[in-house]
Every structure is written in C-alpha cells, then in structure tokens.
Amino acid sequence: MKLTKFNKVHHELNAKMVEFAGYEMPVQYHSIIAEHKAVRNSVGVFDVSHMGEVIIKGEKALNFVQKITTNDASKLTEGRVQYSAMCYKDGGIVDDLLVYKIADDEFMLVVNASNIEKDFAWMNENNEFGVELLNRSDEISLLAVQGPNSKATLDKLVDEPIDLEFYHYKRGKLAGFEMIISRTGYTGELGYELYFEGSEEDAEKLWKEIFEAGKEFDVQPAGLGARDSLRLEMGYCLYGNDVDKTTNPLEAGLGWITKLKKGAFNGSDVLQKIKEEGVKRKLVGMISEERAFPRHGYEISVDGKIIGRITSGTVSPMLGKPIAMGYVEKEYSAEGTKLNFLIRGKEIPATIVKPPFVKK
Amino acid sequence: MNIPAELKYSNDHEWVKAEGNVATIGITEYAQGELGDIVFVDIDSDLAEITFGEVFGSIEAVKTVSDLLAPCNGKVMEINPEFEDNPEIINEDPYGKGWLIKVEMSDPSELDNLMDAEAYGKFIGQ
User: Fold this and answer.
1) Nearest C-alpha of chain A: how many angstroms from B38?
2) Model ipTM?
3) Residues whose CB is less than 8 angstroms from the CB of residue A146 and which lie 6 or more positions away in sequence, other chains included
C-alpha cells in the first residue's frame, strides 16, 4: 500500500485509516459529521496527496489537451484552472479532472487517485502530438485547506495576502515552501489546494505550520468521509459513483464542460449525436423529508416502476435530511418530480431538486 | 477499549445487562467506533417481541447500515426515547444513555450462551 508524506501525522492523530485507491488514507479522525461542520463553519485540512498529477509538455501541448478533454483549454491563460473530463471514443467518461495551464507549452492535469494508471495509459495511447507526458503523482503532495477561514489561516504563512479568484492559481512560498497555491476545492467553500514537492519532514512541518496558523479558528483535520459528504451537499460528481465509463457527460449534467464547438475531441462525434437526439436519462439531485439513509446502488421508483438508481447518498450533516444523486429516466427528471427511494424494502418519498443542496 | 465486566456480549457486538428477568440491550463501544457517526436508529415503535438471532431494527451510520440482531428472546418493555433526537448519544455513551431497548426475558438463563467481558475482549482482538 502506498503512503502519503503525511501518513505519520494521520497515525499520530489516531485517524481511522482505510485503503483507498492503493493508498492508506484517513477516512475520519474523530467524527465525519464534526469534520464536515468544521469545514462549513470555519476551516479544515485534507491530505489529498493520493490525487494524480500528470505534466504535459511540448509545442503541441494544447492540441493534445484539446483532443483528450471535453472543455475548451484554449480559453485558459497562465494562472488559470479548468474543470474538465476525458472521454472514450464512445462518449463514456475516462475521468473527470482539473486542467492547469502552466505555460503555452505546459499543462498539469490533476486526476482521480483511483484512475492514475488508467488515465496515464490512455494519455499515452492518445499522444500523436509528440508531447512529453510525466506522471508526477508520487512526488507531488497535495493539501486542501477549505472553509470560510481558510484564507485567514493561510495568509499568515505568506508574505503577501493570497489574492486569487476562483479557479485561479499562483506559484509562491507558503510557510517557506515553494508551491502551487490554487483557489480550488471539492467542498463548495472558500478554499485552497496546495501542491508541493518535499520530504516527509517538509510535509510534517507544513502541516504543523498550517495548524498553528489556524489555531484561532479551531482548524480541524478532515478525512475522506467528510470530503465525500461535503462534495455531495454541493452536488459534485464523484468518479466511480456518479460518473464512469458507462455514463456520458451530457447525462451527468456536465454539458457545461463539454464544448462541442471547440473542434473534434475524443468522443465528440458521439456526444454531438446524443445532444441532437437528447439524453435517455439524467443525473439529478433528490431530497427527502423522511428519516432514511439513501445509499449508492439503491433503486428509485415512481408508481411502483423502477425508473433509476441512486449513485451517491447521505444524510446531509447541514440539513439533517436525506440527500442523493442518481440517474433517472428523462421523463421523470424534471425539478419537483416526486419519486421514491427503495430502501431495504421500503418506499421512501423524495423530490427532485437542483443541487447544490446546501446553498452558499 | 471499555468492556464493562458486569455485561454479557453477543457476536454481533451487542451488550446485555440483566437485572432479574429484565434485559437492557445496547451496542458496544467497539461497535459504535466501527460504525462511526450514527445518524439514526430504526426500531419499529410497535415492536412487541424480539427473537434470538433475528433482526429487530437497524442502525444507520454515515458510512454503513447495520442490522440489530436480538441477543435473547423477550417482550419489549421500552425503546430508548432519547436516540430519536440525539442518535449521537450511542457514540458518546454506548453503555449508558445510549442503550437501545429493554425487554422482559422469558428465560434469563439463555444469557449463559453469550460471552462474558473477557471472552468478548478476545473476540474483538483486545
């Protein structure tokens, strides 16, 4: 099992460790709900060093990124980040990812931990542009500092206040370490992701400095459990749950990152056709007023007929209500549609709503 | 890990406290730790009887759902009214305020089939 540079820190904090995507990762430290609320109300720190980073270099780097991703990377300028997806030729999703424009001839793609090898192989297979592909996932560590007090915490560790717009990044020194400071995250809160290279000692020192700086805000370590419930409250997709190779970006509600007019890309022909003919099912958000716990895989029914399946679900820590995402047949996908979660033999009434479930 | 000596334990990580023919039933500290944050407990308010080894309810935690299996036979006397609004008391005080149900046992000697604290400690690898 792979270990991140913060592994010792997690053990010292008595985190509950689990195997995730080949890494030993903290799922929770004390309580998923408490960690979730710490991020919503103040500030939390996630070790997400398991995420993958691939550097694309070369004269045709942009052409390569345009071919393998669905969003329009030509719109990016240096210092900007874009949410995107990679598709197979049939329109199924290889992965969802972040695209960082480093320079005219250099990009960094940040991919899901569970997909690193698959993605890197896919990129190589699609490299008819002679670009250099470097998998830097093992060297680059990543911390996500998220929550309304994230800026006040990190500003103590930099010379100049971090002045970044959403989905912008800069290179700089934080707590004495060179890094990429990126105003991105998976929580829906003000937050930053810090990419850096360094030893275990460096990582531990950085962690300590951030927790020292965040002390007045009662900064908390947060695990993968809270990361999942936070993203679900915002209606963000999780690869392997809500999107995978059997789903396409149009039915997953990712039409906004699928730029069919930018020119041909992997899957664009099929996606164009799906767009013209209309999708058969849609990923929707659902909420219930009942006491129930919707989970991945549970069926969804209307008038006794199965019309879909839950892909992600939880009881929202902020709302105290069951929330879920799932695919339903298109004719049942309108906002306000009443349907049922089938939970352990019971029909639990729920309603389709437009995420985010927790409004910011 | 707290494993009170005066209680009896089932393979399904429930504890039973016997007082005469009245048994109070809850889940162990180990069980609540494995489940993590408990969001609610589903025990039918009409539940009249529990039968050894059969499901009498379920516990929904953030990560997973777990069936509650009866550690003895008995008539239901009381279901803890507290966890309706405060399911977290099961995490916080599993052997005290976080008890689940009280039953009147038909045959208290059945509890001899359960584990004592020492055996349960070994069972969970403590």
Assistant:
1) 10
2) 0.86
3) A39, A43, A44, A45, A46, A185, A186, A187, A189, A190, A191, A192, A222, A230
